[in-house]
Amino acid sequence: MSTGFFGDIGKVKFEGPDSTNPLAYRFYDPDRVVMGKRLEDHLRFAVCYWHNFVWPGNDPFGGDTFERPWFPADSMNQARLKADVAFEMFSILGAPYFCFHDHDVRPEGATLGESVARLDEITDYLAGKMDETGVKLLWGTANLFSNRRYMAGAATNPDPDVFAYAAATVKACIDATFKLGGENYVLWGGREGYETLLNTDMRRELDQLGRFLSMVVDYKHRIGFKGAILIEPKPQEPTKHQYDYDVATVYGFLKRYGLENEVKVNIEQGHAILAGHSFEHELALANALGIFGSIDMNRNDYQSGWDTDQFPNNVPEMALAYYQILRGGGFASGGTNFDAKLRRQSLDPADLLHAHIGGMDCCARGLMAAAAMIEDEALAGPLEERYAGWNQAEARAMLAGERTLEAIADRVVKDSIEPAPHSGRQEYLENVVNRYV
Fold it and tell me: Which residues hold Mg(2+) 2 (predicted)?
């Protein structure tokens, strides 16, 4: 049933590249088959609850600009209205998934018990909306950063009562995710870091975080939750330094606490840029380390040094990102979550639709270009040629541990080996990519 929030806007449909309809897909055809799979099944789009239905349009220098009918979100009636509008939007877009924090879907209670009871109540309501619309839950998570109790972190807090409160909150959120058939559970350590080392025992805080994550993994197995546990790396903001700085840092942390086979990463494009990397770098490294899980698709303004969470609009960037994802076998339980928000001057309900339509079209174009490059072996051929020498028997023996350092040195001297440099052909490969995008 229509809430009236979007007026008479009907379901967004694919109309093809020649369409001038701003409320139609020009490139995202969910039923188009690419590399033997429907585009919808490749991309697994999800719409986030927080930026779309919770953020009021404020920033560090100005107050709220959005006036939504469910604001202030301080009652369960408002929470149900927000859910009605959210699922109406998911259905208009034809998005197969959504994501949420506990704080997004229910008002905070006076006690944790009241907050959990409200989460249980709204979970049942969301389940009904999911049955009605067919929209599924990509992942759930807990907000362990907004409330003042978390000003010094959650799992890494110097106060053990905050650690315990956060643990109880995560348990409730995993329970809700499990009940709703969520395919993953994400931990974003929004304040798991430090502002200054003058008051920080880093080793202690890392051990606390390792213990917290181990408990989450143990609980997942005890209740039979089959989804992946994901960590979302971010280098800084709001803290000066986050303990989950980037993919490499997260992997080192997981190895230290014996969790590298239990936890994967949810990589956000904007966070990759803030860490000084490209999105494709973080994706390639996660695949190389065997911890790739899912992505948050957004971008930053390259003229700003902070996390602006804008919708993607750069097809070449998306092509290179999805190239790495497809090379790794594509998504398993993960997907493409739009962790992106409107600009605070974009006030109209239709702006929410325009933003997602453009982002979904951009991602679809990028994935199709990436798939074409893979099918044509446009980059795989030159890559294989560059490393061809390692297929020789002597090279394989060196990597297999069948040659000592002395033996290798003796052979180089005996055979008068003088390596001949070969071109990396970077400009040629860049031109190859540009032919596809």
Answer: 268, 271, 307, 309
350, HSE (Cβ side, Cα atoms, 13 Å): 7
Does the annotation place 103 within a ligand binding site? no
**298, HSE (Cβ side, Cα atoms, 13 Å):** 25
Q: Bigger pLDDT: 167 or 60?
A: 167
| Inter-residue long-range contacts of 424-433, CB under 8 Å, 24+ positions, other chains counted | 424/386, 425/382, 428/382, 429/379, 429/382, 432/373, 432/378, 432/379, 432/382, 433/316, 433/319, 433/320, 433/373, 433/378, 433/379
Residues written for the chain: 437
Confirm if 96 and 40 have CB atoms less than 8 A apart: yes
Is 307 part of any known ligand binding site? Answer: yes
pLDDT higher than threshold 90 for residue 251: yes
Condensed to tens digits (0 to 9), the pLDDT of residues 359-412 reads 999 999 999 999 999 999 999 999 999 999 999 999 999 999 999 999 999 999
Residue 55 to residue 238: CA distance in whole angstroms: 16
The answer to pTM > 0.90 is yes
**Residue 31 marked ligand-binding:** no
pLDDT for 1 beyond 80: no
Q: Which helix (H) or strand (E) holds 136?
A: strand 136-141
Fold topology of 13-375: TIM Barrel (3.20.20)
Mean pLDDT of the chain: 97
Q: Where are the domains of the chain?
A: 13-375, 392-436
Give catalytic residues, as residue numbers: 101, 104
In this predicted structure, what is the pLDDT of residue 304?
Answer: 82
Q: Span 247-271, mean pLDDT?
A: 98
| Residue 296 in marked binding region | yes
Helix 349-375, helix 426-436: angle, nearest 10: 120
Alpha helices per DSSP H over 180-289: 202-223, 247-256, 269-274, 279-289
